Each structure stands twice: as C-alpha cells, then as structure tokens.
Amino acid sequence: MNTFGRSLRLTVFGSSHGPAIGCVLDGMPAGLEVDEEGIRQEMGLRRPQEGIGTPRKEEDEVNIISGVLDLRTTGAPITLMIENRDVDSSKYEQFRRLPRPGHADMPALIKYPNHDIRGGGQFSGRMTAPLVAAGALVRRILEEEDVHIGAFSRSIGDVTDHKGRGLEDSRFSRTLATRACEPDLDVAMRRSIEAAAQDGDSVGGVVECMIDGLPIGVGEPWFDSLESVLAHGMFSIPAVKGLEFGDGFKSAMSRGSQNNDPYRWHQGRIITRGNCHGGILGGMSTGMPVLMRAAFKPTPSISRKQDTVDLERLVDSEVTVQGRHDPCIVPRAVPVVEAVAILTVADLMMEGGFIAP
Ligand SMILES: Cc1cc2nc3c(=O)[nH]c(=O)nc-3n(C[C@H](O)[C@H](O)[C@H](O)COP(=O)(O)O)c2cc1C
What is the pLDDT of residue 194? Predict the structure, then answer.
C-alpha cells in the first residue's frame, strides 16, 4: 500500500507529472513547533545539483494544507503538498509501447494498463520529495529525545570513501554537491558521474546512514524489529537494491570472536568495544549508533540505445531514452535515506512507548 508506519502513519499521493505530489502524516503529537526553514533546507538538499543532477528545475515549495496552525501541529493529520511545475511529458509517450529497461515501466504497464507513464508516474524518484518534507517535520521530535540522524555518500561509481565517519562528517557533507565527506572525494565523485553522463550512461553508489542516541530496546519482536522496519522503509525508496547493518555482508566471512562486540561499563552505561553489530541486536537498539548502508543502482534512464520489447506488436525492438534524468541518484538520495530513517525510528519509538504519542 501507499502507507508506512503504525503509530506515525505516512501516506504518499500524486505522480511525477500530475498537478502535485504530497503526503498525509497522521499521528503527529499536538503542539510541536514546525520549522519551515528546516523543511526548506532539507528540500534544498534533495534538489538536483548543476552538472550532476537532472535539469528538471522544481521549486519544491512545501504547502502545509492541514494539521498545522500558527506554526504548531494541531494533532490533526498533516497534509503536505508540493506542486509539479517544471513538467515536460513529451518524451514519455513512447515508453507506453517501448518500456525502458531498468525502470518500472514494463511491470507497471502490464499490472496497471492505465498507468500514468509521464515521468514514471507513481514510480518516479520525485515521489521521494514529500518523504523529505515529512522527515524534516518529524526530525524535531527525535531531536527533543537527543536522537540524531545523518547520512552521506559512502561511494559513487568507482570512488569509495574508506574512512570511518560520524555525524559531524555527515553534517559537513551537506556543503558538498555529491554529499561526500571531503572536498577531494567530492571532486572524484563528481568526475565519476560526469564521465558516465558523457558516455550516455549512469552510475550508482552507497548511502551510509547513522542513527545516534537511540535508547536501548527500540524495535518490536518479531516482524517490527528495528532492522525489519528500517529495511521495509529503505527498500521502498526507488533504486535501492541492497541494505546492510553494521558489518553486514562482511560479517558472514568473519569469526564469532571477531564479530562479537565485547561489552564495557563506561560512564554509567553499557557500551560495546567496536560496532560490528551496527547498534542492533535481536532487532532492538543496543544504545550504540545504528549504522546502515543502502546500495543504489545506477539510474535506469540512460541516453544509450537499449534493447526492449514493443508491447503493442510483441516483437523485439529498441528504445532511446530522452528527457531529463539524474546521471546518478546517490547525492539526491542522501536526504531521502535520512528522512526514511527519521520516520521509521519515530514510529518505532512511539510504538515502544519511548515517545508519547
Ligand atoms: C531521488 C531519486 C531520483 C531518481 N531519479 C531518476 C531519474 O532521473 N531517472 C530514472 O530513470 N530513475 C530515477 N530514479 C530511480 C527510479 O525511480 C527507479 O529506478 C524506478 O522507479 C524503478 O524502481 P527500482 O529501481 O526500485 O526497481 C530516481 C530515484 C530516486 C530515489
């Protein structure tokens, strides 16, 4: 369905080239201050950057049309709406017959014969804009609990950041277009995106996200474990194809003695030496930072000629994708990953009684 969350429920609506996109956020506590400037800043981080993002220019002005009065939440469902203004649907009609490899066109057209193909319809990356707006609203609740969430680009194309990173690095990455943690990496990642774009191609990468300050025990057994719900949210982001927590796939190759993080009593609380477990054991937070990495595939819409099937004539055919696309999704996905982490953690903290609903 188009709804995510239990205590804090988010429903998304709209399509890429329809009049608007948006979301309804139900379950927000009443009386919470709404930071309009904070929302604008987060939306700005999702905006495409010159040379490495789509040329589609959307203002992404967020209209709050219910649930907020005098910049405070009323307790009623909050509706956030973002108009689609810079729309050019002319290049999409051919995909109704010639679906783009790698995009949602083929299964969507077979499943929904009246699918809105313009801009990818409801499967467009544009649908992540309301998530970012909602995340910016909800971030306030977590900050009041001293829970802080940050993400950055761990890799783009063949460029990987090998250093250990923290929330400070993620904050700094907000100043760089690729969301790298250092200017040199930013230059290298930008080059990798530009080189692919020049070849009529695209690149993917990895977004790393940290959740700091969670109390011990967030996450409900069995199916609402912290990992399960985060994975549900993360895999709902278009183009996410892999996810790992802590040492993730690397832990499959290590020994228990290497992978177990020994406990220590430190300044009145239990900590672990090392964080292979990524802050989650038994589906519950351990009090150590939650560490998570989401793999994004290369953007499916590339300008090279590709093989496809003509859905009208049912013969092999070819398609050349035109229109405006991101040669790399990763930089714009960083605030989306943060937003989904915020929404998930806030929901689970409400579920578990860590935050009053
Ligand atoms: C922020 C963001 C921007 C995106 N931009 C594009 C784009 O410009 N062109 C494109 O083909 N796909 C883009 N995508 C990815 C597609 O929406 C996605 O690959 C497609 O819906 C198929 O879904 P799947 O990759 O999850 O299987 C974007 C995704 C995100 C999260």
Answer: 96
Domain assignment of residue 165, given as a range: 3-351
The 3 state secondary structure assigned to 89-129 is: CCCCHHHHCCCCCCCCHHHHHHHCCCCCCHHHHHHCHHHHH
- Is residue 357 in some structural domain? no
Q: How far is the CA of 124 from the centre of ligand 1 (A)?
A: 6
**pLDDT at residue 336 greater than cutoff 90:** yes
The dihedrals phi and psi of 332, each to the nearest 5 degrees, come to: -75, -20
238 alpha carbon – ligand 1 mean position (Å):
5
Query: Is 308 close to ligand 1, i.e. is its CB under 6 Å away?
Result: no
Give Dmax over CA atoms of the chain in angstroms: 71
Number of structural domains found in the chain: 1
52-81 tens-digit pLDDT:
999 888 889 999 999 999 999 999 999 999
**Ligand 1 centroid – CA 240 distance (Å):** 9
Whose CA is closest to atom 3 on ligand 1? 125
CATH at 84: 3.60.150.10
Burial grade of 30 (CB within 10 A; 0-12, 13-18, 19 or more): exposed
- Does residue 77 belong to any structural domain of this protein? yes
Residues near 35 by Cβ (< 8 Å), separated by ≥ 6? 136, 140
- Note the pLDDT of residue 90: 85
* Binding site membership of 128 for ligand 1 (Cβ less than 6 Å): yes
pTM for this structure?
0.97
Contact 319, 98 (CB under 8 A): yes
121 CA to centre of ligand 1 in angstroms = 11
Any atom of ligand 1 within 6 Å of the Cβ of 52 = no
Is 213 in a helix, a strand, or coil? Answer: coil
The residue written with tokens 């981080």 in the block is: 45
